[in-house]
Amino acid sequence: MDVKSSFVSQAYANARHAAAPQPKPGAADQGFARLAGNFVEALQEHERTARAAMTGNADPHALVQALASSQLAVETVATVRDRVVEAYQEILRMPV
């Protein structure tokens, strides 16, 4: 009986590894890096627009659009950060 249980446990272990999803290496890291890069590029573009408006090379309408867009980007990043922290805290509260 002991021999059968070891075969069963070995078969279960093999089946569990075969059925487990295989994550793509670095897929999540690349996604977050791409999002962070887009955020930084957007803020740099808005900063260039603000500088151009201060020197008189851009119209005030473009400045207002850049300020509104940068405010939206910062609020979005802050909201995502808050959700990630909230999820992390919820995981920490889970019973083991």
From TrEMBL:
UniProt-listed Pfam families? FliE
**Annotated transmembrane regions:** none
Q: Where in the cell is it found?
A: Bacterial flagellum basal body
Keywords in alphabetical order, please.
Bacterial flagellum, Cell projection, Cilium, Flagellum
NCBIfam families, alphabetized: PRK00790.1-5
Q: Which family does it belong to?
A: Belongs to the FliE family.
Q: What is this protein called?
A: Flagellar hook-basal body complex protein FliE
What is the protein's species of origin? Answer: Rhodobacter calidifons
| Gene that encodes the chain | fliE
